[in-house]
């Protein structure tokens, strides 16, 4: 018997704003939903990895609402890759033979508006003018402008990413926003950091997602293998040393490294992937990541978008969930939420947005600092 690992239960709450809830309560809700998805209870879980960027000891606090069973709980934080990292640690533990059944959960409470660095007293640290700007819209605006300088990518092409993902979101009942934004609306909305308008920026929301992972042997014994999703590869990378301009934060190199490692582990190539949930924190990032993930050649991201390949019904649909641009981006939950979306398609349970014939899916998240997680999932 192999030591392959399967997702047997997975779910996410509808992303939104829950002003009177704590992150651990959102995590508890998602966990119960994931357990219900596979007919298990909290006593069946042998170890837990809980991801959050802002909540302290979230895993243990979550169990106050579900039931404390004495199992090991590890709390994880890894910027935007937090949830995916928690998932990967649970996967590693099962691969290593320590456990048969583990839980990975991610949850976050997010404020409205722009994320800015703060000191220990909670006061915003002014970065404007020190290194260009450290606020995220500016970082990804620079990423887009560099792509334009090298490859001629246009403002309209970046805007079409948002048009596409917002259109996809209308088919996802768990997305924060479910409304179309025609191209003109995207381009004419408030300019945040050129070429990024407000409708080309991801949504800060509250959210939670959870997954139950199980060894192949246990999944077969439990009768859960037929609806399970196989984790074909799990890769996590940080920035390698490069002689680069420190004004530019680099999310390209770390993504390429993680993707390469994942493809090698899975013995697959980009051409084998049927759908992708990638880190579209800003519209500029999605086009760059087409190239970083090997979906198209260097400099052809804009053309790949224009070809229709990445829209629902295309060759390799990207962010059919609506992506971070519409579904929302609760940092600790995002990685597992992306895995949930791919799992729904591989199970054939994605409803109106189902990617027909999906057998292999890829998820990707990047946390600046840096951390990049890439997972390849396969229909059982």
UniProtKB/TrEMBL annotation:
What molecular function terms (GO) are annotated for this protein? acetyl-CoA C-acyltransferase activity; lipid binding
Can you supply a Gene Ontology BP term from the record? lipid transport
Q: List each copy of the Thiolase N-terminal domain by range.
A: 5-184
The protein's superkingdom reads: Bacteria
- EC number(s) reported in the record: 2.3.1.176
Keywords annotated in UniProt: Acyltransferase, Lipid transport, Lipid-binding, Transferase, Transport
User: Which is an annotated Pfam family here?
Assistant: Thiolase_C_1
Q: Which residues form the Thiolase C-terminal domain?
A: 253-373
Q: State the InterPro entries in the record.
A: Thiolase (IPR002155), Thiolase-like (IPR016039), Thiolase_C_2 (IPR055140), Thiolase_CS (IPR020613), Thiolase_N (IPR020616)
The record, for PANTHER family, names: ACETYL-COA C-ACETYLTRANSFERASE, NON-SPECIFIC LIPID-TRANSFER PROTEIN-LIKE 2
* The protein's name in its UniProt record: propanoyl-CoA C-acyltransferase
